[in-house]
Write a structure and sequence with these properties.
CATH class: Mainly Alpha
Number of helices: 8
Shape: flat
Order of helices and strands: HHHHHHHH
Distance between the termini: 53 Å
Oligomer: single chain
Radius of gyration: 21 Å
Largest sheet: none
Length: 216
């Protein structure tokens, strides 16, 4: 196999990697916000459920969670989901895992806001919803960009765990080519793909952080 053929195959796997990355963020970030609200709820049972959820998601390996989501319906209910369920299972597992991390990031950002912000908004006649969405949330996003950047970079690398249920993302293809050719070049090339992708993610997030730093 020549170099161009190898890169072409890796590029095909890279598209799957990007798809996992984008869909995970698309679902996990809003889900994380909902979990953060539940974690801060004044209703004890809701707060406890959110705490347990976050603890389980952060305390167990993502690889295990992928296996549970994929094989769970069969072992729990005897329902065979078929090969077509593999990709949705990966997205579900990634989304619920990363939502737990984003929830704690959001919660830390919200709870770090000075109480004076809420008092000033109340004096100005803002309701609770208006205060949160127009005053608090924009400032929270400014504060949480750095930890969110760390999580998104970790996500890029974690996409390789999709191999657990035979999803042919880039790293899986690189291992297959490397094993067939007894060469490290495909793995090295995959590493370059990951690095460039992470570099682009970091640059985008840095630009976003600078754009939001309008008080500096």
């Amino acid at each position: 196999m020549n170099l161009m053929s190898m890169l072409s195959q890796l590029a095909g796997g890279f598209l799957v990697t990007v798809e996992i990355f984008v869909l995970t963020l698309l679902f996990s970030m809003p889900l994380g916000m909902l979990v953060a609200f539940a974690r801060m709820s004044k209703i004890g049972i809701i707060r406890t459920v959110a705490k347990v959820y976050i603890s389980v998601m952060r305390g167990t390996p993502l690889m295990l969670q992928i296996l549970v989501v994929y094989f769970g319906p069969f072992y729990a209910f005897g329902i065979g989901m078929g090969k077509g369920y593999r990709f949705p299972a990966v997205i579900i597992a990634f989304a619920i895992n990363y939502a737990a991390y984003f929830a704690e990031i959001y919660r830390a950002g919200i709870e770090s806001m000075p109480i004076g912000q809420y008092e000033a908004a109340e004096i100005l006649g803002y309701g609770k919803a208006q205060t949160f969405f127009k005053i608090i949330l924009p400032q929270v996003f400014k504060r949480v960009i750095p930890p969110i950047t760390n999580e998104t970079i970790t996500l890029v690398k974690d996409t390789s765990l999709a191999f657990t249920i035979s999803i042919a993302e880039m790293f899986t293809i690189a291992k297959q080519i490397g094993a067939a050719q007894t060469s490290m070049l495909p793995l090295f090339s995959a590493g370059v793909f990951y690095y460039v992708f992470n570099l682009l993610v970091a640059l985008v997030m840095e630009k976003m952080e600078k754009r939001l730093a309008y008080y500096r």
